[in-house]
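Many groups now describe folds with learned vocabularies. In that spirit, our science desk offers one protein's residues alongside their backbone shape tokens.
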Amino acid sequence: MTEDEISAAEGRIGVRFPGELRIWLMLNNGSTALRLRESHYVGTNYAAFSPLPHGCAFLDLDRIESTYAARHAYQDQLIASGDNFTYWDRTWIPAIEKFDAPYGFFLDVSAGCVDCAMYNYSEGDVIEVGHTPPSFPSLGVYLTDVADALEGIRPWGSRIGFEGVVPTVRDGVLHW
């Protein structure tokens, strides 16, 4: 992934990505596990191919754009029908999503921040940035927590109120 490709996507979306996400996309452009989900590995437990907890994978640039567009289309439908709550704000960039459901994490870029707060979302959530506490202060903190859990330094989830989970490997597969 190049700076120009990321800049073009930002132009289409209308929001600049935070620095941490830009760097991740240039290094990896999503998760290998996400590509497996859309390949010939039908019936495979794709979550086993991801190093992230709870069956999540990083979205690649195309999936960021399509997820963003789909959530905004639904927000526009709500507005057209007279609903006035925010289902998805224009400054929320989806970054991580579960394999089996439209749940994941987005980065709130409303403050134009370098290290933007990260919130979790699900299809039925009504998130009020400023009132709902973020799941992580930034993508970097999220990645640090994942790395700490993988290295046995601290159980996963202790920072965000989940019961601490220690990842294990069974039969050559990572389990969270």
